[in-house]
TrEMBL record:
SUPFAM superfamilies for this protein: F-box domain (SSF81383), L domain-like (SSF52058)
Domain F-box as annotated: residue spans: 4-52
Name of the protein: F-box domain-containing protein
Length: 421
């Protein structure tokens, strides 16, 4: 029975779009279907290479054929523009072993010359410098770089990424001046991420981008490398995530649009308590906050009042929770995961949020020594509608003991107020 081949009769641009959803080796295989498909794969708009294709290959001619194929695909001068170029190169240093010469920088330049809009690079143990052409690519909208076990990430003296909207750099060592040069030349950036990166030789990290909407800073440091200032001026910032040791100083201004923040901090020095206060002053307009504090240091300064805060998730020491409840007068939802209970006296004056606004409280990983906290919250929460207590992280014996401890509260409380999970 004759079956009509309708797909082969589609226009070239539609068939290219179909091929863009296939792994590159599957796209190449379509060239044997008919003359209409013979060279169509070379015109696909998404090029996605994963070095798993090379795993298990030992014959030199096969590996060279793959390298030559990629060279031809990316370096044809008459090819259509690229929407996306992805390269996942695990163990890239082992490729160039004296027999093979994989021109990864040339591949990146080839994508740039084809007007690529998105570049996604995973370069494991990459020992070369990224091509300067990458940092002057006017067509680029999204740049994602993971440089695991690679050398210091260097930015050339000339940078102009005037249309870049998303920048994500992971597992990289960044030099302060080089980092600031990159940031300052991305004028329309909306999403900026530095994930599990380290910073060296920095006096400041300067982020002043009016268009920025999302910012994620996850930095780790060796001892002594936190002696610098973080400067942020982002009037349209909606989401801010910061995961780092407290540094020398913070200058966070003009963040009136901030809706949600996730702050995870620890202290390398007790001298930086004032810096921590400045960090929270910078995000004082936030409406939803997830806060993790790993250590406790003596508090000599009060935290700023977070008038707009209505959702608060806290992970840390009991003493910091007490402090923050007094700084959130309009809080409506509270989620708590305490690292330990230090025996704080809960006969303190009730924060105003408990009396007027707090409607839902959730205590995760409950332990029996938190019973005083539960009593305090129930006694002082005037508008509370639901208290959720999670004991499911315990073993069966401890969970049973916790439920028996909470049972009298469950019986004496309003109907359906307390939920034990």
């Amino acid at each position: 029975m004759y079956v009509e081949d309708r797909i082969s009769n589609f226009p070239d641009h539609i068939r290219c779009h179909i091929l863009s959803f296939l792994p590159i080796h599957e796209s190449v295989r379509t060239s044997i279907l008919s003359t209409k498909w013979r060279n169509l794969f070379a015109s696909i708009s998404t090029v996605d290479f994963d070095t798993y294709l090379l795993r298990g290959l030992t014959e030199r001619n096969i590996i060279d054929s793959f390298k030559n194929f990629v060279d031809r695909l990316l370096k044809f001068p008459d090819q259509l523009s690229l929407d996306c170029f992805r390269l996942r190169a695990d163990g890239i240093a082992s490729w160039n072993d004296g027999y093979h010469d994989f021109d990864v920088s040339g591949w990146i330049c080839g994508a740039v010359c084809r007007g690529v809009k998105e570049i996604d690079l995973y370069l494991d143990n990459f020992c070369h410098t990224l091509p300067a052409l990458l940092f002057t690519c006017h067509s680029l909208r999204t740049l994602t770089l993971v440089a695991k076990d690679s050398k210091i990430f260097k930015v050339p003296s000339e940078v102009c990424l005037r249309n870049l909207k998303t920048l994500c750099i992971t597992n990289s060592v960044l030099v302060g001046d080089s980092l600031n040069r990159l940031i300052s030349n991305c004028h329309v950036l909306e999403d900026l991420t530095f994930d599990e990166c380290s910073v060296v030789n920095a006096r400041d990290i300067n982020i002043q981008i009016p268009s920025l909407k999302s910012l994620f800073l996850d930095f780790f440091f060796s001892i002594g490398d936190s002696n610098y200032v973080v400067v942020i001026n982002a009037p349209n910032l909606v989401y801010f995530r910061y995961d780092s040791v407290i540094v020398k100083g913070y200058n966070l201004s003009n963040m009136k649009s901030l809706e949600k923040a996730e702050i995870c901090i620890w202290f390398g020095s007790s001298n930086y308590e004032t810096s921590a206060i400045h960090l929270f002053q910078g995000i004082c307009n936030v409406r939803s906050l997830r806060l993790t504090i790993h250590e406790v240091i003596p508090l000599t300064s009060r935290f700023p009042i977070l008038h707009n805060l209505i959702e608060f998730e806290f992970l840390g020491k009991e003493i910091w929770l007490v402090e923050f409840l007094h700084c959130a007068p309009n809080l409506k939802t509270l989620t708590v995961l305490l690292q330990d209970v230090a025996g704080t006296r809960w006969n303190i004056d009730a924060p105003s949020c408990l009396s007027f606004h707090l409607k839902k409280i959730e205590i995760s990983d409950y332990t029996t020594d938190m019973i005083e906290i539960v009593h305090y919250l129930l006694d002082n929460s005037m508008v509370l509608e639901k208290l959720i207590i999670r004991v499911n992280a315990m073993n069966a014996t401890r969970a049973s003991k916790a439920r028996n401890q909470l049972l009298p509260l469950l019986k004496s409380s309003k109907k359906d107020l307390i939920v034990i999970l």
